[in-house]
Amino acid sequence: MLALDRVSKTYPNGVQALARFSAEIRQGEIVAIIGGSGCGKSTLLRAVAGLDRASSGTVTLDNEAISSPHAKIGIIFQEPRLLPWLSVADNIGFGLADLPAAERREKVARALERVGLAEKAQAWPRELSGGQAQRVAIARALVPQPEVLLLDEPFSALDAFTRRDLQDHLLDLWADTRPTLILVTHDVDEAVVLADRVLVMRPRPGRLFDQIEINLGRPRDRNSPLFENFKRSVLASLDRSLDRSVPDRDATQGPGQAMWW
Amino acid sequence: MISDAPVLQQASEPAENVAAPSRLSRYARPLLGILLPLTLALGWELVVWLGWSNGRLVPPPSRIFATIAELARSGELVRHITATLWRVALGFAFGVVAGTLLGAISGYWSLARRLLDPTVQALRAIPSLAWVPLFILWLGIFETSKVALIAVGVFFPVYLGVMGAILSVDRKIVEVGRTFRLSGPAMIRRILLPAVLPAYVVSLRVGLGLGWMFVVAAELIGASEGLGYLLLDGQQLGKPAQILAAIVIFAILGKLTDWLIEVAAAPFLRWQDVFVRAKGA
């Protein structure tokens, strides 16, 4: 279980990006974090990734405190961030340097197959389309089999069609080993398609505002009325989070209570 | 030499599958560059041949090539070229090693940069030729002072290039290394070195260009052999053809060695998302 306990972050310039954020995320759960700009979503994710340290509060994975990048935690960024001097296959195998070459090759080959880029194995990253590059990034993050995979607006730079395709693809890959997914997004549709639970954050300082359980089976039909309902409730919560006249609600209330309709 | 670096020549590339006119321009374009010097050379040859000028101070191309051929026959040419090449090679090697080491240290550790860089920058502001008298006093008038002068010329662009390249490595790529928990040495080997390589090659080429510049200065100061000596000898004995011959050889050697670096580096830079090098550029 991934536990965030009153995580706060104040940057050296005095901006408080995150204030006392607490959440517990079960192994294998898919959580989407959504919120207006400047609500500290990315700050939160970077703290969980161990890339930045929280000013106060703790992040623990299975009771182990996270203060630097951890083997069990992978991250996918908004940009693919492939290493341009490595072939697609070598990029995917980047995190497997400790394995013997044969085993690494086999894992990479399987991952390439899995993301449908087997014929691009020896291509350079510059030869890939945006969607292909992001698929390589996903494969690179998944191939060391992390327990927790963090995604920082991973599809926001892609066109709508590719985005949908990759969302489905991500779920498909997730089903293989069922890691915990924490997805930062500003796309309500994406949050409802992917997540078991949507955490709505409120900006200045970034803090938890609301959480909404998405009790929908998978695969989810983007056009079903139920799907629309969930979208509407997330949107409504998002609107309220940006409305300063609405007081903070107790965000730690149990699941289910957020379903107010 | 700096301007000889590969220039962005994208324009000729997309024309590949288009019809004849653009294809013509693709091959004609490099030739256009040769047109002017060729015309001038032939023109001057003609002028001298017609007797409109005796061509004593500005010898026609045929006389320059005759001089080169003569020097080659007597074996002198090889001796001079070897001496100069050897000096450049040694000076370049020392300059590159020192520039790379110090540049890497300054780029990697900000404390070292604060300690070191102001001094290096101050030294860089000194015109390198100002060192000549001191080097001669310290190191004598023979090879050591010449090599030292060349090394100084090579050092600064390499130092600056390496440091600047390390400082400008993309934070986002470094973060990828961090998320995979690379150790310090692994980070250098797997992220920093490849990221720095393109800029490093450029700084090597700039450094080499300066190395050629400084070998002339060093050999003009006092040498009994070398292409620079050939220049000086030509001046003192009033043999402009010999001076021009040395200049032509300098140009050829400079271009050739620059090309060697480019070719040697090419296999490591295939991944780059850049222009196509124009043929014959």
Describe this protein's structure.
The complex is a heterodimer of chains A (261) and B (281). With 261 residues, chain A is of the alpha/beta class. Chain A has two domains: 142 residues, P-loop containing nucleotide triphosphate hydrolases (Rossmann fold, 3-Layer(aba) Sandwich), CATH 3.40.50; 63 residues, no CATH class. In chain A, 32% of the residues lie in helices and 23% in strands. In chain A, helix 4 runs parallel beside helix 5 and helix 6 crosses helix 7. Chain B has two domains: 45 residues, no CATH class; 213 residues, MetI-like fold (Orthogonal Bundle), CATH 1.10.3720. Chain B is built from ten helices and no strands.
| Average predicted local confidence, pLDDT of chain A | 87
The main sheet of chain A orders its strands as 6-7-8-3-9-10
- Work out the radius of gyration of chain A: 18 Å
How helical, in percent, are the residues of chain B? over 70%
Order of SSEs of chain A, N→C?
A: EEEHEEEHHHEHEHEEH
Q: How many runs of DSSP E, i.e. beta strands of chain A? A: 10
CATH topology of the largest domain in chain A: Rossmann fold
Per DSSP, the total helix count of chain A is 7
What is the overall shape of chain A?
globular
Percent of residues in β-strands of chain A: 15-25%
Count of DSSP strands of chain B: 0
- Alpha-beta classification of chain A: alpha/beta
Count the domains of chain B: 2
- Helices and strands of chain B: which structural class? mainly alpha
* Overall pLDDT of chain B: 84
CATH level-4 homologous superfamily of the largest domain in chain A: P-loop containing nucleotide triphosphate hydrolases
CATH superfamily of the largest domain in chain B: MetI-like
Biggest sheet of chain B: strands, sense, closure?
A: none
Architecture per CATH nomenclature, i.e. the level-2 architecture of the largest domain in chain A: 3-Layer(aba) Sandwich
Distance between the amino and carboxyl termini of chain B: 13 Å
- Shape assignment of chain B: globular
